Automatic annotation (TrEMBL):
InterPro entries: AB_hydrolase_fold (IPR029058), Dienelactn_hydro (IPR002925), FrsA_esterase (IPR050261)
Domain Dienelactone hydrolase, first and last residues per copy: 28-242
Protein name: DLH domain-containing protein
Pfam families (UniProt xref): DLH
Organism: Caenorhabditis tropicalis
Molecular functions per Gene Ontology: hydrolase activity
Length: 243
């Protein structure tokens, strides 16, 4: 399937400008297509996120690699990335929520999108983003978190999550996500009556989907091809189910 790539500029509720990478399959006629937003790991949009969005477009979905930092802000140094991400994670409702919601609103403006069939995937930091989207009950069909942070939203009601299928892929050897956080996540999802699947991949460490993870120079972060392939195939199966 032929896929077109373009840049999509959009704003959040505070007027901040973002620029994501949009991938659209070329189809005949005016058939509406489902959409999937791809939320990045701590480095922001890289070739990895673009490749995932392009692959989703090959599957027949309109895909947007969301910009978490702002138009023109593309840090290459990992410490700079952490400096940008840290306040977003520490103030998830006030600072991060407008950023992640803006990308959902943006993909709904794309021609031929079926705005009733929107999903999201996220890696690491992006995994936290998509789980928060499910917690906000904004009508997504499905979200998939890959090695994402599992902590609940602070001081936020544990209302039922309605209509959103949740899939979580966790590395069983992930030293960045302690067992207590995993256990608390299960309790939260049960309390919320959520439709969730939690997969723990044997021997997989944090960042297991990222082919470049071994070069990050971060302890406990390592690529695992088997876990990466299995988790991706599971995500594609989920989207085929819900769409």
């Amino acid at each position: 399937m032929t896929v077109t790539h373009s840049l999509l500029q959009y704003k959040d509720s505070n007027g901040n400008v973002y620029e994501g990478d949009l991938f659209v399959p070329r189809t005949t006629g005016m058939r509406k297509l489902p959409g999937v937003v791809v939320y990045s790991a701590f480095r922001g949009i890289t070739d990895f996120e673009r490749e995932k969005a392009a692959t989703l477009a090959q599957e027949g979905y309109i895909a947007l690699a969301a910009d978490p930092f702002g138009k023109g802000i593309r840090p290459t140094d990992k410490m700079q990335c952490f400096e940008i991400v840290r306040p977003l994670v520490s103030e998830r409702i006030d600072k991060l929520k407008p950023v992640i919601i803006a990308a959902i609103d943006a993909i709904k403006t794309v021609q031929c999108i079926d705005d009733q069939k929107i999903g999201a995937i996220g890696f690491c930091f992006g995994g936290l983003c998509v789980l928060d989207l499910a917690r906000y009950n904004i009508g997504l069909k499905a979200v998939v978190s890959f090695h994402g942070t599992l902590k609940p939203l602070p001081n936020f009601p544990l209302d039922s999550i309605i209509g959103t299928a949740i899939q979580v892929h966790h590395g069983d050897a992930d030293s960045h996500i302690p067992k207590e956080q995993v256990d608390e996540f299960h309790v939260e999802m049960r309390t919320r009556n959520a439709d969730f699947v939690f997969s723990s991949h044997a021997f997989a460490e944090h960042g297991f989907t990222e082919p470049e993870a071994d070069s990050f120079g971060l302890p406990g972060v390592k690529y695992n091809k088997k876990a990466a392939d299995r988790s991706w195939n599971s995500a594609i199966s989920l989207f085929k189910e819900v769409f």
